[in-house]
Amino acid sequence: MSRERLYLFDTTLRDGAQTAGIEFSLEDKIAIIGLLEDLGVDYIEGGYPGANPVDTSFFERRRTKKAVFTAFGMTKRAGRSAANDPGVMGLTQSAADATCFVAKAWDYQVELALGSTTDEHLEGIADTVRTAIAAGKEALIDLEHFFDGYKANPSYALACVQTALDAGARWVVLCDTNGGTMPSEIREIVGAVLKIAPGDRLGIHPHDDTGQAVANALAAVEAGVRQVQGTLNGLGERCGNTNLVTLIPTLVLKPYYAERFETGITPAQLERLTHISRAFDDRLNRAPARQAPYVGASAFATKAGIHASALLKDFSTYEHVPPESVGNERSIMVSQQAGKSNLLTALARHHITLEKDDPRLEKLLATVKEREARGYSYDGADASFAVLARRVLGTLPNFFDVENYRAMVERRHNAQGEEITVTEAVVKIRVAGELLMSVAEGNGPVNALDLALRKDLGIYSRRIEDLELVDFKVRILDGGTGAVTRVLVESRDGSGERWVTIGVSPNIIDASFEALYESITYKLLKTDAAQDSAD
């Protein structure tokens, strides 16, 4: 039985940025692109070039390797041509492969929000699509408020679909913008649209205001659409968007969908799902949702009693999919009964090969779990995992030892009488038996420590010349004055590789220094590996 292709369109970098309390930096966007490419989605919508400095910089060059790099924006304004609309031109002149334009499919919104007419708006859709195609872009149209618009005026809503397709749009996306449409309504209305448009040109974009975004996406797929838009962990304004982390394994693992449809997600990529979901939360300084389907820490957890007893005889009794298929693990009572396979996969990423019965694997697994209980999280700090693994396995070179360090922050007046803050750090390290001391000033204790630590590394100094710290995130794990602090440090070097290290301590400076130390150690491990390859 031949399967139909479903296309997955991620809008995390645009819809996710509308989440209360979320704001992506340029470095965040670049790192999240990497997670999405690891997952294997077909399209990545990066934001709105021209809307703000971050998005404009982001679209100065192509950011994806495989996924279709997509820019988002508005159709042309009334009263001007698309070729003379700065917003449209910003998209067509960006480095994006595709452009996704939002249009109003509800006549009430056309009059209320745009102060225009339906005929004028239809003309704008056509002109915008033709202009994008002429610029060499794949054109998509997001029909905002489509389902409410169809209920109010079906002829106009369908005219929007037909106009976009006639102009050459590759995809016309039906948006449940306020998230209030029921799955039964989705099926019925999509069925009506399919009478004038082929399903392989239609997409669905549900919001989660009734908690049914994933259900609505599946209903649309069952009805005939072949593109689904959503976000990592369901991020988005108000109640969020379709959660791709829930939708994807449902499409790939559940027989009803897996037998009828294929996606671009491989089994190996699906096994990275839990890691990607948690690494994304770590980047946002958010605690992962423990009860999230498929990837939550409690998704395959069972307390003692009859359920645990049954699980020990047949794990499938209370598990709808094998936890390892999505990179998660089984938890029975208070002990973890799985994890070796995940650990071996993680070790393989760093070219470390162990047999499953190697006793050192048990020791590493126990160490990881003990440290995670103290606040460490290696899903978002893979470089620290590589350092920890080599330390536990006894293969970590002793590059340098830290004798002691000190950071001092002083508030004072300068010669002009201005109040300023000066930070100074002193670091003493021992390299190959030689004691080295470095002093540096920075714009904060972490920056000063970073500069001092890298100022003189003796025989290793040249090997870290291209190392730089690009991001720094702090999260308080427990409240109160004795709170445990988790610090994530992102670094990069001249090769373009980025890596994240972690530090945990009640003292934010200690946590920061631990993450900085491991970043340098990881860089030296990289240069060791490069030298071995050259030899």
How many β strands by DSSP?
A: 19
The largest pleated sheet is described as: 8 strands, parallel, barrel
CATH architecture of the domain at 7-265: Alpha-Beta Barrel
**Terminal residue distance:** 51 Å
Please name the CATH topology of the domain at 7-265. Answer: TIM Barrel
Q: What is the class of the domain at 7-265 in the CATH system? A: Alpha Beta
Strand arrangement within the widest β-sheet reads 2-3-4-5-6-7-8-9
Classify the secondary structure makeup into a structural class: alpha/beta
> How much strand content do the residues show?
15-25%
CATH homology-level superfamily of the domain at 7-265 = Aldolase class I
GO biological process, one term: L-leucine biosynthetic process
Catalytic activity: pyruvate + acetyl-CoA + H2O = (3R)-citramalate + CoA + H(+)
EC number: 2.3.3.21
Pathway: Amino-acid biosynthesis; L-isoleucine biosynthesis; 2-oxobutanoate from pyruvate: step 1/3
Structure description:
This protein has helices at 12-15, 26-39, 53-58, 86-92, 107-114, 118-134, 146-152, 154-167, 183-193, 213-223, 244-253, 255-258, 267-270, 273-283, 306-313, 340-349, 359-373, 382-393, 445-455, 508-534; strands at residues 4-5, 7-10, 43-45, 68-74, 98-104, 138-144, 171-176, 202-206, 227-230, 261-262, 301-302, 331-332, 335-336, 401-413, 419-431, 434-442, 468-476, 485-492, 498-505. Among the domains are: 7-265, TIM Barrel (Alpha-Beta Barrel), CATH 3.20.20; 407-456. The two termini are 51 Å apart. It is of the alpha/beta class and 535 residues long. The strands form five sheets. It has an eight-stranded parallel barrel with strand order 2-3-4-5-6-7-8-9, surrounded by six helices. Strands 11-12-13 form a three-stranded mixed beta sheet. Helix 17 (359-373) packs across helix 18 and helix 19 (445-455) runs parallel beside helix 20. Strand 3 (43-45), helix 3 and strand 4 form a beta-alpha-beta unit. It contains 20 helices and 19 strands. The radius of gyration is 26 Å and the shape is globular. Mean pLDDT is 92; it is low at 304-308 and 332-338.
